[in-house]
Amino acid sequence: MQDDKDIELTITPTPAEEAAVQEEIASVKEESIKAATAEIDDKIDKDLKENSQEPEEGIDLGAKTLEEIVEQEAQESETQPPSNFSLSKTLGGAILAHVIQRQIKLVLLITLFLIIYITCRYQCQQKMVEIDRMEQQLTSIRYKATVVTSFLTEKSRESNIMEMLEQKGDSTLQIPKDPPYKINIPE
Fold first, then answer.
1. Among candidates 101, 45, 93, 94, which has minimal Cα distance to 69?
2. Rounded to whole angstroms, how far apart are CA atoms 50 and 95?
């Protein structure tokens, strides 16, 4: 079985052939420009006959260049409102789709901002839930600490300690009957 190989063939025209092709292109361009100019002139004449307006004196319709005429037609077509608005296109979403296609970068930017906003809000809500849970935990721990502190305070009173010692049978400790006094040591 033979392998198919790509053959690359390069054809270079001679300078004489190139010149002939260039001349042919130039003549085709000139003919198309002449045909377009004649067509536009006919259109202008038709429009003038339909509107029954005579051209002003001193204005030569053939003196306009093709570029000026094309520019004028482009400006006229830009100023005309689009006549293809219909209820079915509006309700069908064609107009909305056209607007979105024209503003796709803005739509993507707004979508990105919405995603960031929703993400930040979700994270904020999660932090708030965690803060509430920790505050409830802190409150319950404070209550427990208050209960333990009050229980310890009651157990460490002098009368309760003496009562506890008497119950255990240790009678060597007693409540002093004389008030405490200071001992001054000279230096």
1. 45
2. 35
